[in-house]
C-alpha cells in the first residue's frame, strides 16, 4: 500500500561475522609498528551523518549509531557509546571480541589509562579528530607511559578493500527567497566577527557553515542537504571554496564565483600553508576542525586560533524569511501528520500493521505534499519494548507488529526547501494501562512547562532543562537524553550551538529553533516521547525590568488525549493543551477532507475535568 523512498530497513552487518576484519586490522597495525589505534565515528568535518566511505566504525565493529568510538589494542578492543545506544550496541557488537564501554562517564581516556602499557604506540588519524580530542588522548597516553602517533594514511582504509567511493552529490542554489540574505551580506557579517576575534582569516571546516554562507545545498550525506566542502574567509579579499568540481553545474559554479574563488579540496592544505607562512592568525572551529589543520598552520608558521565557529551562531538565529518558511513547512507537514495519525487510529487496532508499515505510511503522506526533499533522519518507529530504545531504527529483522495494548512511539521529520521538521508522537493502541497514562502525563507536563516558559534574555538551555524533568523526578524517574536540540533551515535537523540540556551553555536568542522533547523509557515494555519544535520569540511583560523571551510552538499535531490523566494536570496546563489543540484544528482542518477532518475534530476536542 505504501513504500519508503528515502529509508531502508536492511539489517546492518554485525557480530561475529566481522571478527575477521578485526584480525586483518590488527595485522596492519603490527605491520606499521603500532600497538593500538583509535577509530572515531567521524569524517573529516565531524558530521553527524557521514558518507558511506567514512563509516569506519560501523565497518569494523557493526555499531551503526551516530556517536561512538572504538579502540583496538593488540590483545583487547572496546567500543564506546553513550546512554542512547547502550542497548543497540549490545545487539550489534560481538561481545566476545569487543568490550562495550561508556563514551561519557567515565570517558574513553580513562579506559586507555588503565589498558595501555609503557612503551605502547597508539595511532590516530589527525583528519578524524579535533585538536581538543587529541589533547585528551595525549594526556591519557602520557599517564600510561605510551606514545600517541599521528599517522599519515589511515590503516583501516588499507584493509577496507570494498570501501565505497566518496560522494558526488550535485550542488543546488538555495535562493534568497528561502535564505533571506545574500552571500555578500553574510560575508560582511562574518568579517565583522573576524575583526572581533582579531583573526586574519577563518577556516569553515563545517560544511553546514559553507552551505549557509554561500547559499548552497547538496546531496553528499543521508537526510541532510549537505555539500561536503571547506572554505577560507580572509579579513581582506575574496574567500575560497574547496569543493569537488564534479558536484558543480555551470549555474552552481557561476553562483559561487560571484563571491568566491572555487578550488578542488586538495588545494586546502596548500592555500592554508601559504596563508600561515605570512604569520597569519587563522581562526578554526574547535568543534569540527581536524587536528591536521591545526598542525599544518603551526608547522607553516601561522597562529591557529581555536574557538567556537562564529558562523554557527549566525546560522542558528533565523531571519524573517527563514522563520516564515519554517512556519509554512510545519503547516504543510501537519497535514501529512494528521493523515498519518488518522490512518494509525483506523488501522493499527486490528494488529495487521507493523513498525515498517508505519514508517512507509508516514513518508508516503509527506511525499503527497509534493514538496518533500527527504526525511530529516531515519524515522524511529518503535512499538512495545522497541519504543524503549531511544534511537531505535526498525529493520526487517526487528520489525514488530503493532498490537492492542501497545504504545507506538514515532519520531520523524521532513526536509522541505523552506524548512526542516522534527516531531514525535506517542500513540495508544487500544486501552493504555494506568502506568502508561501516569508516565505520559508526567512527560506532557514537562513538555508544557518548556512550551510555556518565560525567561530573561541570556538564559541558557541548561537553565531550562530542569523544567522538562521536574514531574518525572517527583516519581523517581528521568530520561537519558537532552530535552532539546537546535534545528537548521533546510539543513541539519540537529544544529548547534544552542540546546536545552544539562550541557546547554549557549544563551538562547530570538530566532533560534529548538526541539522540546522530554520522554520516559521503560526497558522491555514501552517508550514515551512528546516532541514539538519551538521558536524563541520576544515576550512582553508589563513592568518587566529586562528583555524577556518565550517560545512559539511551530509543530501542529494532536497529542493523544487517551493517554492523559486529567486529574494530574493543573488548570493552566489544561488550558495550554486545549488552546494548542484549537490552533491545530484551525490551521490544519481546512487542508483535510472527509473522515480525516472528522478524526481531527475528535482528536483536538477540548478536554474538561
Automatic annotation (TrEMBL):
Listed GO MF terms: metal ion binding; metalloaminopeptidase activity
CDD domains associated with the record: APP
Family named by the database record: Belongs to the peptidase M24B family.
Domain Peptidase M24 C-terminal stretches: 548-607
Top-rank lineage group of the source organism: Bacteria
Domain called Peptidase M24: residue spans: 325-537
Gene Ontology, cellular component aspect: cytoplasm
Domain Creatinase N-terminal: 21-153
Coiled-coil regions, chain positions: none
Keyword entries, A-Z: Aminopeptidase, Hydrolase, Metal-binding, Protease
Name by which UniProt lists this protein: Aminopeptidase P family protein
Lineage: Bacteria, Pseudomonadati, Pseudomonadota, Alphaproteobacteria, Hyphomicrobiales
